[in-house]
Amino acid sequence: MTTAEVQEKQAQIQRSAETLFGQKVDWVTFYREILGLHGIARQLFPTQEQLRQFEQTEAYRDVLQMLARLRAKGPQANEEEEPTRVITVRLPKSLHESLRVEAHEHHTSMNKLCISKLLQFIDNEKIPAE
């Protein structure tokens, strides 16, 4: 893929995100349509490497800013449209306490803080292999 093709795909994602953002959709719908498993970003950058490269761009940062603004505005999608799933994460007490304090410092819930952290790009070098 040429640099021009990559830039055009990034611009296409950004335009789609701006259009959806302008429609004042909820954050879950925005995430699903732009960054979700079948979203435009994964359609245009189907390989893990391509997606990771996109996640390091200004266009991706702009999409995340739009997502953050939508999350701040209010509730997520209707439960019928997008059911909620629960995960259980085992973590040391010290990490739990750090998250609790960080959430308090940000005047938010631990759930919202953890979702924010989950939405961020994580370099493969920071993920231990099984």
Quick summary:
With about 130 residues, the chain is an all-alpha fold.
Shape: globular
Secondary structure class reads mainly alpha
What can be said about the biggest beta sheet?
A: none
Seen as an oligomer or otherwise, the chain set is single chain
Mean pLDDT across every amino acid position = 90
Distance N to C terminus? 32 Å
Rg of Cα set: 16 Å
Order of helices and strands: HHHHHHH
Q: Please, how many helices?
A: 7
Describe the overall structure.
There is one protein chain. With 130 residues, the chain is mainly alpha-helical. It contains 7 helices and no strands. α1 (3-22) packs parallel to α5 (58-73), α2 (27-34) runs antiparallel to α5 and α6 (93-105) packs across α7. The relative contact order is 0.11. The model has no long low-confidence stretch (mean pLDDT 90).
